[in-house]
Design goal:
Blueprint: H1 2-45, E1 48-52, E2 55-62, E3 65-72, E4 77-78, E5 83-93, E6 102-112, E7 117-120, E8 123-128, E9 150-155, E10 158-160, E11 166-176, E12 179-189, E13 194-205, E14 211-215, E15 217-221, E16 226-230, E17 233-235, E18 239-242, E19 245-250, E20 256-269, E21 275-287, E22 292-308, E23 315-316, E24 319-320, E25 327-329, E26 336-353, E27 357-371, E28 383-399, E29 402-420, E30 427-432, E31 435-439, E32 445-450, E33 454-459, E34 466-470, E35 472-478, E36 482-496, E37 499-509, E38 514-518, E39 522-525, E40 528-531, E41 534-538, E42 544-554, E43 572-581, E44 587-598, E45 601-611, E46 616-620, E47 628-640, E48 643-653, E49 655-659, E50 664-674, E51 679-689, E52 705-718, E53 721-731, E54 736-740, E55 745-748, E56 752-755, E57 758-762, E58 767-771, E59 779-783
Antiparallel strand pairs: 1-2, 2-3, 3-5, 4-5, 5-6, 6-7, 6-8, 7-10, 8-9, 9-11, 10-11, 11-12, 12-13, 13-14, 13-15, 14-17, 15-16, 16-19, 17-18, 18-20, 19-20, 20-21, 21-22, 22-26, 23-24, 25-26, 26-27, 27-28, 28-29, 29-30, 29-31, 30-33, 31-32, 32-35, 33-34, 34-36, 35-36, 36-37, 37-38, 37-39, ...
Length: 786
């Protein structure tokens, strides 16, 4: 037994020694394998691996500059197939020119030696940071300022150590200094420093301009420092914007500096005046201090529509009215939305202040602003307005919901076209060097001021244009109907066919088409020139009305040898308190102390209607105010220095009718004719005049009496004689009076009263012939000595 126990002990001790040797051998073998692996891995994967107290650092360099580093805080364990696990990893990307300091961090990664991929096994955080001075500093130097990086969080990230590229197909959440968002799928290319968000991009902006941006795809580049978006859509509290593409330009601190959208740009804005804007490109500039909009620039075929929502106009028989060319379906109530104002331009610049409140809009390059009227709620005189100019500045004011247009100023040549709602109506074109327009709360024109060089052209189908010019123009508008009145001031000139007018001020109202001229107005029409205190021209009918100190001059007259009172080529003048012309200026009615004269021929009356074409007139007096007064001439059968002497004959009446082609003046109503020594009164009287072209009578002289025929209660009065009868025929050539009817009688202060069937007496020698009838055939001749 003792011998066996001793042997067992020796055997057990030998076994222990063998076991220790075996364990020791295995340990050193394993250690030798690991050390060999650590020596062989760098050669196989082309990397430099350094072991430290905190783990491992793997880096790759080119031309003396580090492209990236991979730091792991846990030991590297190699698996079958050349795989290695890295724990608590940080990957830093410097870029080929050391201008980046992008960092990727994660808890667990797996390294594939064959592909060179470093694959994240969980969540990964990415910070994108520019390092503009990296090339000027030692290798791997971090930026002095690490503020506001672009931060991304994702999973399943694959980083390739050969290329420095990284990608994932998982969701990614990211943060910018002014917002945060998400996307699905990320791809990073180290050579170009381009980060691409593959799909379902959504970005929520904070700060002074809160909004949400969605896009089908986003690309973030280093140089230039910007974000590109495919099919972006921006939505804020009051605005939304769509485009084919957009670029977000970032500042060095990654704050948003500018947004450039292009391709089918559409901006919709809600508020007191819902608006739609379309263009080929939109450029948004941000204010750095407050992260708000500073300017917005639309360019390339800019089209703007400003809407009004009118419930009364959106229903027909209880049903929504179908959309027309100027209507759109409002998204809130699904009712037709009117677009009463539309604008086109090559470029529009919007300026903002405060909390993205629009303060000013500048439009340029063939600007056209069209304001439609709603036919369902306007009168027959309603008009559409179209403003065109080289440039227009729109100034905004605060409204219940945001801002509204307050006024507008044009630059360069400008025109306002006033068009009727029917194709057959009158179109008016107003041009001026500069317009200043004001708008009401609904965005409708309230007034337009234009200066200098204002010009208004009215166009009617089949008629010549009507043109008026002035230094200044002011237009007022009636909401929903268009222009209420046009006022021109300063050297006003108006042309309507043969009618031309001048004055210091003109006011035109389209509703009645009346043009009122004041300030020494003057009108010429077919050889007629009229001045007055004020004049009214009806452009629809051609009627003209003059008030106050009216004076008309008819010139360019041809002599009429067969005429008499108005046959001269001398101007015919007419004065009165007022004048009315219907249609053309051929016939004019003068009222209120009217006076017409040509050469020495004068007619005065309460009213005179003058027909220039026939050189005729109708003069009317008043029993209570003023009678008609006509001045004619008659020969007195005496000579002065061998020249026949003429004396005036003044005829007063209630009514005068004269036609120059008949050379007859017809008087009615208490007619009185006064010569040098004779007065004739009657109820009616015709004065027949000598033709101007007869014998040697001058065509520029006064009309001369040829014959007077007086009827009804005729009374002839001379200094010593008075004769009565029913009919008087006076012939100026022999100064003979023939009086019949009544029976006629003559009373002589010296010889008494003489009665007969016919009385004939001669004024130049005082002879009197008395004729009887058949029952008393005797004739008495009496000579009365003076």
């Amino acid at each position: 037994m003792p011998t066996n126990l001793s042997r067992l002990r020796r055997w057990f001790a030998g076994a222990i020694i063998v076991a220790v040797l075996l364990v020791t051998g295995v340990y050193f073998y394993a250690r030798h394998r690991i050390q060999n692996a650590l020596k062989q891995v760098p050669e196989k994967i082309g990397l430099e691996i350094k072991q430290s107290a905190t783990g491992f650092t793997i880096s790759k360099s080119e031309q003396g500059r580090t492209l990236f580093t991979i730091q792991a805080n846990k030991a590297v364990q190699f698996k079958q197939g050349g795989h290695a696990e890295l724990h608590d990893v940080q990957i830093t990307l410097y870029g080929s020119d050391s201008s980046r300091f992008d960092q990727i961090r994660g808890a667990d990664f797996e390294y594939d030696q064959q592909s060179g991929n470093v694959i994240a096994k969980g969540e990964v955080q990415i910070d994108l940071q520019a390092n503009p001075e990296g090339l000027l500093k030692p290798d791997q130097s971090p930026p002095e300022d690490l503020k506001n990086p672009i931060h991304l969080e994702t999973s399943g990230l694959i980083f390739n150590q050969k290329t420095g590229d990284a990608h994932t197909t998982e969701r990614v959440d990211f943060r910018l200094p002014q917002g945060s968002g998400s996307a699905v799928g990320v791809n990073y290319v180290a050579k170009t420093n381009v980060l691409t968000l593959q799909s379902q991009v959504s970005l929520v902006l904070r700060g002074g301009a809160p909004a949400t941006i969605t896009a089908a795809r986003a690309t973030i580049t280093k140089d230039p420092h910007q974000v590109g978006l495919d099919h972006p859509h921006l939505q804020s509290a009051a605005r939304q914007c769509d485009a084919d593409e957009a670029t977000l330009f970032l500042r060095p601190d990654n704050t948003l500096d500018r947004v450039l959208a292009h391709g089918n740009v559409l901006v919709k804005a809600e508020g007191s005046q819902p608006t739609e804007a379309r263009s080929e490109q939109l450029d948004l500039m941000m204010a750095k201090q407050h992260d708000t909009l500073r300017t917005a620039v639309f360019s390339g075929n800019v089209r703007l529509q400003i809407a009004t929502n009118s419930p009364a106009n959106s229903m027909e028989d209880g049903r929504p009215r179908p959309s027309g060319p100027n209507q759109a379906l409002h998204p809130d109530n699904q009712k037709p939305q009117e677009w009463p104002m539309q604008a086109n331009a090559g470029r529009v610049i919007l300026e903002f202040a405060g909390k993205n409140l629009l303060t000013k809009a500048h439009a340029e390059d063939h600007v056209k602003l069209l304001q439609h009227q709603n036919p369902a709620s306007t009168s027959a005189s309603a008009q559409d307005l179209e403003l065109t100019a080289s440039g227009v500045d729109f100034f905004m004011t605060a409204a219940d919901r945001g801002t509204r247009i307050d006024r507008a100023e044009t630059s360069g040549a400008a025109q306002v076209a006033i068009r009727p709602l029917t194709a057959s109506g009158q179109q008016t074109l107003v041009t001026v060097a500069k317009f200043d327009a004001h708008f009401d709360d609904a965005g409708q024109f309230t007034s337009i001021h234009g200066a200098p060089d204002a010009r208004i052209v009215s166009q009617n189908p089949g008629q010549p244009d009507r043109v008026s010019t002035s230094r200044v123009l002011d237009a007022t508008f009636q909401p929903g109907n268009g222009i209420q009145s046009l006022v021109q001031q300063g050297s006003v000139a108006y042309v309507d066919g043969e009618r031309k007018a001048w004055g210091d001020r003109a006011r035109y109202t389209p509703a009645d088409q009346i043009l009122i001229l004041t300030g020494s107005p003057r009108v010429t029409d077919g050889g007629m020139t009229t001045t007055a205190n004020s004049m009214r021209l009806n452009r629809a009918t051609g009627d003209a009305f003059a008030e106050g100190d009216v004076k008309s001059t008819y010139s360019d007259l041809k002599p009429q040898p067969g005429g008499a009172l108005l046959s001269s080529s001398s101007p015919i003048h007419v004065t009165a308190r007022s004048m009315t012309v219907h249609g053309t200026a051929a016939i004019a009615l003068y009222t209120g102390d009217a006076r017409l004269w040509q050469d020495a021929n004068v007619v005065e009356a309460q009213s005179i209607e003058f027909d220039r074409g026939h050189r005729s007139m109708l003069a009317l007096g008043s029993a209570t105010s003023r009678a008609v007064s006509t001045v004619l001439l008659q020969n007195d059968h005496s000579e002065v220095n061998g020249t026949a002497r003429s004396t005036p004959v003044v005829i007063t009446s209630t009514r005068l009718t004269y036609a120059d082609n008949e050379r007859k003046a017809h008087f009615e109503g208490d007619v009185t004719a006064k010569g040098s020594d004779v007065t004739i009164t009657a109820k009616k009287m015709d004065a027949l005049l000598e033709a101007r072209g007869r014998t040697s009578q001058s065509l520029s002289g006064a009309g001369k009496l040829d014959k007077i025929i007086a009827q009804d209660q005729v009374v002839i009065t001379q200094p010593d004689r008075r004769a009565t009868g029913d009919l008087l025929t006076y012939t100026a050539s022999d100064d003979k009076f023939v009086l019949t009817g009544g029976p006629p009688s003559i009373f002589d202060a010296e010889h008494g009263k003489i009665t007969g069937v016919s009385l004939t007496f001669f004024r130049h020698d005082d002879r009197v012939l008395v004729e009887g009838n058949n029952s008393s055939p005797t004739v008495t001749q009496t000579r009365v000595a003076r």
